[in-house]
């Protein structure tokens, strides 16, 4: 009976990547020593999210010298959270750590996270940013506003200043896989599970190379997905806006009637203009909020996968190192001659 060696893997490290060719050498130079020192079997699941640069080919070069490295290639760019989902679902380890490729989150903290989880029997260990001085003031303020809002909408179990650098047990990963959510926001889903958790703090560094993959537009999209995935509060806001607009218009009506009875001229176009603008704005806001939820319902009904895996190197042998390939070619030439 064959033994599945995948079941013996202690730790999986999932790294979503998109156009990270410049960051890969520095990432490997820091990540591999950190993982080699844990004294347990591991795998690194690098998820290439449809990169347009040389990320895939560079990963193949590293895989020739690093057998623990797996490369999962998606057929198209599906987004950070979808790539993270693909990595989590493809991992084999009893514990799974997710980390970005930009080295803003230090891989040297991974052994500490694993040791804490094993010692205290935790299912979740969050990497919490204790110092974000390398981020811009705008980034720190918007991040603070995001976590403040999420803690009030979702609950206080949302860990402040914890991104996607975290450790999950196999039980936690299987629980996430069982959820029907198509647009998964792990910063909120993981705390929602309620598994025993701990924290490891660290200093957030600057991006080692390349450009950020989370510009303002994607940050806004993440905030909208977070709110609409976990709370019906925007719909309640629409209801309250409707009530407020009703009473405001009722007040304008009373004012107009009193002015008419008193014989005071009513400035018709001004009051009408303000009332129409106010009611129109409220209606558009309410329609937009309803549209967000209807759109999510439509997406859920379609049941389309959020990603497609093009290839997984776990099902293929590792490529031979460059030196070995050259020696084999020389031997073949000598035999033919």
Q: Give the count of structural domains.
A: 2
What is the typical, i.e. mean, pLDDT?
Answer: 78
How do the helices and strands follow one another from N- to C-terminus?
Answer: EHEHEHEHEHEHHEHHHEH
CATH C-level name of the largest domain: Alpha Beta
Hey, roughly how much beta strand do the residues contain?
A: 15-25%
- Helical run tally: 11
The name of the CATH topology of the largest domain is: Spore Coat Polysaccharide Biosynthesis Protein SpsA, Chain A
Taking all Cα atoms into account, the compactness measure Rg is: 26 Å
> What structural category characterises the helix and strand content?
alpha/beta
CATH-scheme architecture of the largest domain? Alpha-Beta Complex
Main sheet, how many strands, which sense, barrel?
A: 8 strands, mixed
- Bulk shape: elongated
Find the CATH superfamily of the largest domain.
Spore Coat Polysaccharide Biosynthesis Protein SpsA, Chain A
Unreliable spans are: 322-337
């Amino acid at each position: 009976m064959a033994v599945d060696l995948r079941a013996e893997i202690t730790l999986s490290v999932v790294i979503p990547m998109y156009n990270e060719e410049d960051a890969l050498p520095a990432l490997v130079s820091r990540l591999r020593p950190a993982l080699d020192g844990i004294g347990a079997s591991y795998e690194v699941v690098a998820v290439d999210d449809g990169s347009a640069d040389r990320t895939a080919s560079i990963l193949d070069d590293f895989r020739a010298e690093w057998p623990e490295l797996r490369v999962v290639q998606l057929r198209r760019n599906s987004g950070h959270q979808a790539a993270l989902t693909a990595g989590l679902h493809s991992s084999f380890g009893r514990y799974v750590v997710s980390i970005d490729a930009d080295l803003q989150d230090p891989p040297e903290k991974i052994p500490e996270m694993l040791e804490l989880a094993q010692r205290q029997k935790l299912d979740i260990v969050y990497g919490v940013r204790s110092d974000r001085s390398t981020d811009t003031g705008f980034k720190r303020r918007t991040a603070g506003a995001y976590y403040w809002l999420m803690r009030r909408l979702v609950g206080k179990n949302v860990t402040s200043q914890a991104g996607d650098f975290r450790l999950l047990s196999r039980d936690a990963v299987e629980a996430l896989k069982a959820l029907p959510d198509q647009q998964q926001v792990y910063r909120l889903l993981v705390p929602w599970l309620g598994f025993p958790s701990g924290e490891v703090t660290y200093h957030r560094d600057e991006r080692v190379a390349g450009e950020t993959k989370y510009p303002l537009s994607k940050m806004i999209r993440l905030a909208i997905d977070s709110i609409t995935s976990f709370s019906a509060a925007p719909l309640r806001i629409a209801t309250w806006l409707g009530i407020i607009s009703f009473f405001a218009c009722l007040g304008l009506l009373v004012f107009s009637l009193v002015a008419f009875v008193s014989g005071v001229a009513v400035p018709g176009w001004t009051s009408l203009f303000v009332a129409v603008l106010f009611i129109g704005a409220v209606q558009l806001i309410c329609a937009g909020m309803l549209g967000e939820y209807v759109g999510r319902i439509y997406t859920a009904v379609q049941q389309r996968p959020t990603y497609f895996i093009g290839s997984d190197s776990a099902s293929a042998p590792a490529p031979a190192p460059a030196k070995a390939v050259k020696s084999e070619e020389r031997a073949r030439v000598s035999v033919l001659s």
